[in-house]
Amino acid sequence: MTTTAPTAPAAEPVAAYDTDEDLLARVLAPYKAHCAYLRSAVVTAHDGLSAARCEFAIPESCYIDDTGHLNAVEVNIAYNQMMYYLVAKSVQERLLTGFEDWTLDDFWRHQLPDILIARFSARFRRPVDPRAFHGELEFRSVARRTPAASRPFLHAQTVHRYWDADGGQCDGETTLAFVNLP
Fold first, then answer.
1. pLDDT in tens, 74-101
2. Lowest-confidence range among 59-63, 70-74, 120-124?
């Protein structure tokens, strides 16, 4: 069986960036060593949006005995790592609408305290082997919002997918809020 994504990208990418090892190491620096699951990421961009296709490995769960399959906690951690890398690379390369004024210094300052998951969903369609799997995250939209009596923030819609060599499959949607804008 091949390890292709369950769905095709929305549009042909106009740019592609292989894994930046230094950037990846810095993105994963806040994680405990045994919780750094993201191994590589290829970032693509089209029409002011970006996506990442990633490889992951979870040799041992960081919080529970071996379940034999990817679980909701690990999906969320993998999503965070994939999203942080994608945003950092998008800022570095000026790929993502809404982040035109950000620098990498802005990203590092905002990575943990100001990038919030407002809504997260995951659907497990077939068990995914956590020891070697792939993931994909795609920004579908980014919009600046300014609520009454509040500071502006960026509101982003993303979709994510995970799969393995044996047909394991998981997917979902996530809404992000980027607050305390630079």
1. 999 999 999 999 999 999 999 999 999 9
2. 59-63
What's the burial of 119, exposed, middle or buried (CB within 10 Å: 0-12/13-18/19+)?
A: exposed
**Residue for token pair 């995250």:** 137
Nearest to residue 115, comparing CAs of 180, 173, 32, 50?
180
More confident residue, 48 or 62: 48
29 burial class (0-12, 13-18, 19+ CB within 10 angstroms)? exposed
The answer to whether the CB of 106 falls within 8 A of the CB of 91 is yes
129-165 burial, b at 16+ Cβ within 10 Å, e below that, comes to bbebbbbbbbbeebeeeeeeeeeebbebebbbbbbbe
